[in-house]
């Protein structure tokens, strides 16, 4: 029986979700603006000292970062989870004596399912997979932003760069689950309610990395990720479309114009269920051939489709829903 939420609980959930959205969209610019402002005041030594320290600490994000169990266990993440609600589902064991690359689909507008499941403990990752550490890999440019980088590292995020992946999969021992949102910027523009389209036919870099370091591949699908916002789609060739393409070329991701249920940015109350599939054993090949990459890429796509079909009914989709891979 579903229990009614109190007004206080609803308020806390709304504020928590807004905090996360504003952090995702605005915290970076706010941090840059704050540093510039302080440089123009009598407090200028503070940003100068911080920037000197940041230069000395420049490579830390690519060396495992500085995750904080305190930040990952903030109660605010529980309120974010309950707002939709969100759930993390385990379908197979992950051996803590091995390393993994988890390919997460779809990107959605803000990838909130991936963040809640793998950068916080709100969905119980450590309880479901004891001995395994999840690390969500995001755009490396975000770790160049002063102050913001500390927040990102505290949640356990690391850059999705070759040096970072190499460190996580070869220098950090075993039991590492490196999470990569495969579709990236291109997939975010396909985020529409009721649509299940993933971009990965030509995304093979993560498979090559898995082979180089002998990391098992694990497909992950977040059902409902595309349902929490309604995106404004610009027709190809329009001014809005050209702006998105230019922004993507410069910044490596595309800005999405989206609307929510209320207050413009408040997401729709739609369940988001992130299902972690079964590992695909991958041999270690320091110099994998293209044939090997293509083979395991094909196995991964087959496993992803199988995972989607096996769990779509329990996650609220009809049998007619099919996963489209482009």
Automatic annotation (TrEMBL):
Any single Gene Ontology cellular-component annotation: endoplasmic reticulum membrane
EC number(s) reported in the record: 2.3.1.-
Annotated TM spans: 20-53
Main enzyme class: transferase
Membrane topology note: Multi-pass membrane protein
Any GO MF annotation of the entry: diacylglycerol O-acyltransferase activity
Pfam family, one: DAGAT
InterPro entries: DAGAT (IPR007130)
Protein's GO biological process: triglyceride biosynthetic process
Subcellular location: Endoplasmic reticulum membrane
Keywords: Acyltransferase, Endoplasmic reticulum, Lipid biosynthesis, Lipid metabolism, Membrane, Transferase, Transmembrane, Transmembrane helix
Family, as annotated: Belongs to the diacylglycerol acyltransferase family.
PANTHER family found in the cross-reference section: DIACYLGLYCEROL O-ACYLTRANSFERASE, DIACYLGLYCEROL O-ACYLTRANSFERASE 2-LIKE PROTEIN 6
The protein's name in its UniProt record: Acyltransferase
């Amino acid at each position: 029986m579903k229990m009614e939420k109190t007004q206080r609980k609803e308020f806390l959930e709304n504020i928590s979700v807004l905090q996360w959205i504003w952090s995702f969209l605005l915290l970076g610019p706010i941090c840059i603006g704050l540093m510039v402002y302080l440089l123009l005041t009598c407090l200028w030594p503070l940003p100068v000292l911080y920037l000197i320290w940041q230069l000395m600490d420049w490579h830390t994000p690519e060396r495992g970062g500085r995750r904080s169990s305190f930040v990952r266990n903030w109660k605010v993440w529980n309120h974010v989870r309950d707002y939709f609600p969100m759930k993390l589902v385990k379908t197979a064991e992950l051996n803590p004596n091995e390393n993994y690359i988890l390919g997460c689909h779809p990107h959605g507008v803000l990838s909130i399912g991936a963040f809640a499941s793998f950068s916080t403990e709100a969905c119980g990752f450590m309880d479901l997979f004891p001995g395994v550490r999840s690390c969500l890999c995001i755009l490396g440019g975000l770790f160049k932003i002063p102050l913001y980088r500390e927040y990102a590292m505290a949640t356990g995020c690391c850059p999705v760069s070759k040096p970072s992946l190499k460190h996580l999969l070869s220098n950090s021992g075993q039991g590492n689950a490196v999470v990569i949102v495969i579709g990236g910027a291109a997939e975010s523009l396909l985020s529409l309610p009721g649509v299940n389209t993933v971009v990965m036919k030509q995304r093979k870099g993560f498979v090559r990395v898995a082979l180089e370091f002998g990391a098992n591949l694990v497909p992950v699908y977040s059902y409902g990720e595309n349902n929490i916002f309604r995106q404004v789609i610009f027709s190809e060739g329009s001014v809005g479309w050209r702006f998105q393409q230019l922004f993507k070329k410069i910044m490596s991701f595309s800005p999405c114009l989206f609307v929510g249920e209320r207050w413009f940015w408040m997401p729709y109350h739609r369940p988001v269920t992130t299902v972690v599939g079964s590992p695909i054993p991958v041999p270690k090949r320091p110099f994998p051939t293209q044939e090997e990459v293509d083979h395991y890429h094909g196995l991964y796509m087959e496993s992803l489709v199988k995972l989607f079909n096996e769990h779509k009914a329990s996650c609220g989709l009809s049998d007619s829903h099919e996963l489209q891979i482009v």
